[in-house]
Amino acid sequence: MIDVPYILAGALTGFVVGLTGVGGGAMMTPILLLVFNVSPVTAVATDLWFASITKLVAAKTHHKSGKIDWQIVKHLWAGSLPIAIITVTLIHFGMKFQKVSWLTEAIGFLIVLTAVGLITSPLLLKRIRPQAHGAEVKPEALKPKTTVFAGGMLGLCVALTSVGAGALGSVLLMYLYPRRMQPHTLVASDIVHAIPLALVAGIGYAFTGMVDVHMLLNLLMGSLPAVVLGSLLATKLSSRLLQTSLALVLLMVGVRTLV
């Protein structure tokens, strides 16, 4: 059955994901919690499938642009996928996840953290980015251990809350690679990393019967065409203004989730 409010929510989130790489979990999960009053566990489980399918469509568009940094993506996967698999396995085989009272608070905390990171990242990047003084500054070399560790942190956050793959991931990549991660490369690489991560975690939740299929299908009806539009515009528009606006919205949403 068609549910227009879910379709509209999916379209809004899908457009933002395609344009900025941020929003799959940071926007959709609080929307499901606060607007639709979905239980935290169902919101996390359903959003993981929503994010993986939506970002798969976005990745096809970004792949054509050749902006994906595959070296960084592979090292993120090396950390995030094993941690996500371990986490969802523990949930499936005995962790009383349904009774974790702090789940909503954890989601709110991660959303606030993401918002603060997005807002402050330009100022911090100016301080950590060496000045060229007229000479060309070469991009950073790959940092394998640090990137794998960052991926592990993202894997844990995504498996528990569905938040982090795009939102926290983009902030971490900006800090690790301030010169190597140009805006379009950051969006494309972040989206590609998030796909198997969300899918691995989502499969684990599917076995527990926590995914709301009806809600998922309606969300995808809105997000899939919208994410294509956002992805096409991402190579033509500056996403900084939208990221700042999104950060302010996330900050308000995160605080509302916590109180």
Question: Any overview of this molecule?
Answer:
The chain is mostly helical. Helices cover 75% and strands 0% of the residues. The chain has 10 helices and no strands. It is globular, with a radius of gyration of 17 Å. The model has no long low-confidence stretch (mean pLDDT 83).
Short description:
The chain has 259 residues and is mainly α.
Specify the number of helices: 10
Uncertain spans, ≥5 residues at pLDDT below 50? Answer: none
* Helix percent band: over 70%
User: What is the percentage of strand-forming residues?
Assistant: under 5%
Summing up helix and strand content along with how strands pair, one would put the structural category as mainly alpha
Descriptive keywords:
single chain, about 260 residues, mainly alpha, 10 helices, about 75% helix, globular
What's the topology here?
Elements: H1 4-20, H2 28-35, H3 40-64, H4 70-92, H5 103-128, H6 144-161, H7 167-176, H8 183-207, H9 213-234, H10 240-258
Helix pairs in contact: 1-9, 2-3, 3-8, 3-9, 4-6, 4-8, 5-7, 5-10, 6-7
